[in-house]
């Protein structure tokens, strides 16, 4: 009888442990995390971290951070570099995915401060993706709105947007058009709107079986008034962490 009780107790412990493992695995499937390194001819190198938590089949909670490494976005020694952090909600509609996000900027790039300023900018944005068997679309619009003044008065508001439509030749290769612009839409001294750059070119993209993809875009720069080059390049990778 004693042996039977021990066996039953052991079975209960094993079943409970197995259920806990299954529950933990199910919870892990709801979360995903992506690293997206980017390098382009104006801003230089940056790392983007993307995460999401699945709420249901149509919605997910998203969060992100962007680590800008260009010294001109902070201190010349590499300190006070501009940092973005944000949170949003993603919605799936058949082949479409829409992700509005509210982000915040930290550093001294937007506030013209001489030292780190937390929440120096508010960054509302929206990402729209389309993905079918033959076509893909990646589009984005973000306003960098100065929120806190620094020691000077040269605050500014910026707008970043891109639209990248493409055609899938196969599951592993696609190509298409690439447009991206970065504009100064307001300054403290009332300067008129100016395009920092306005890129129009093409892209090629390679996609691996494990979900990793690489995209290279290049072409002419249509706005060089602020000293940016006549040509551009941009390369980025999308690397899911399992």
Write a concise keyword list for the protein shown above.
242 residues; mainly beta; Porin; twelve-stranded antiparallel barrel; 1 helix; 12 strands
Task: Explain this structure.
This protein has one helix at residues 2-29; strands at 31-40, 44-54, 59-68, 83-93, 96-107, 117-131, 135-146, 156-168, 173-187, 194-207, 213-220, 231-241. It has 242 residues and is mostly beta strands. A twelve-stranded antiparallel barrel has the order 1-2-3-4-5-6-7-8-9-10-11-12. The longest helix is centred in the first third of the chain and has 28 residues, at 2-29. The radius of gyration is 23 Å and the shape is globular. It starts with a helix and ends with a strand.
SSE topology:
Layout: H1 2-29, E1 31-40, E2 44-54, E3 59-68, E4 83-93, E5 96-107, E6 117-131, E7 135-146, E8 156-168, E9 173-187, E10 194-207, E11 213-220, E12 231-241
Antiparallel strand pairs: 1-2, 1-12, 2-3, 3-4, 4-5, 5-6, 6-7, 7-8, 8-9, 9-10, 10-11, 11-12
């Amino acid at each position: 009888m004693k042996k039977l009780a021990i066996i039953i107790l052991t079975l209960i412990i094993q079943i409970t442990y197995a259920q806990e493992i299954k529950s933990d695995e199910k919870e892990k499937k709801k979360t995903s995390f992506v690293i997206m390194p980017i390098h382009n001819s104006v801003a230089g190198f940056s790392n983007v971290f993307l995460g999401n938590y699945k709420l249901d089949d149509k919605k997910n909670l998203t969060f992100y951070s962007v680590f800008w490494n260009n010294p001109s976005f902070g201190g010349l020694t590499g300190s006070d570099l501009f940092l973005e952090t944000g949170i949003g909600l993603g919605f799936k509609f058949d082949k479409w995915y829409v992700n509005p996000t509210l982000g915040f900027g930290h550093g001294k790039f937007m506030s013209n401060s001489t030292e780190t300023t937390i929440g120096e900018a508010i960054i509302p944005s929206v990402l729209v993706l389309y993905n079918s068997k033959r076509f893909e679309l990646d589009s984005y619009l973000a306003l960098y709105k100065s929120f806190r003044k620094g020691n000077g008065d040269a605050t500014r508001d910026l707008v970043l947007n891109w639209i990248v439509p493409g055609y899938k030749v196969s599951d592993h290769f696609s190509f298409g058009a690439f447009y991206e612009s970065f504009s100064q839409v307001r300054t403290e001294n009332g300067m008129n709107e100016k395009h920092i750059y306005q890129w129009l070119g093409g892209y090629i993209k390679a996609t691996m079986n494990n979900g990793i993809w690489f995209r290279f875009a290049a072409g002419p720069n249509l706005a060089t008034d602020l000293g940016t080059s006549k040509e551009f390049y941009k390369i980025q990778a999308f690397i899911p962490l399992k």
